[in-house]
Design brief:
Helix content: under 10%
Bound molecules: zinc ion
Mean pLDDT: 83
Strand order of the largest sheet: 3-1-2-4
Number of domains: 1
Number of helices: 1
Number of strands: 4
Protein name: DUF3499 family protein
Low-confidence stretches: 69-76
Pfam family, one: DUF3499
């Protein structure tokens, strides 16, 4: 496995999410850590990904990658 550090300067924590910019739609997508590094994406640690906001005029789409709240929303039996 290839652990990449957070792309924020002076952070260096392990990344848990990847922020990708879709320039065509002015959309920033925050999702699970990408397997391959994309030059248009930024790897972020849990803290920095939680603080991420979209640039002005952009829309931020946040996928659920954080299972902080222990809600057993997995198996409905
Ligand atoms: Zn960080």
């Amino acid at each position: 496995m290839s652990n990449r550090p957070c792309s924020r300067i002076a952070c260096g924590k392990p990344s848990v999410a990847t922020l990708t910019f879709d320039y065509a739609d002015s959309m920033a997508v925050l999702g699970p850590l990408a397997i391959e590094h994309d030059p248009h994406s930024f790897d972020l640690c849990d803290r920095h990904s939680a603080r991420t906001t979209a640039p002005q005029g952009w829309q931020l789409v946040r996928h659920r990658v954080f299972t902080d709240q222990a809600g057993a929303a997995g198996s409905a039996t």
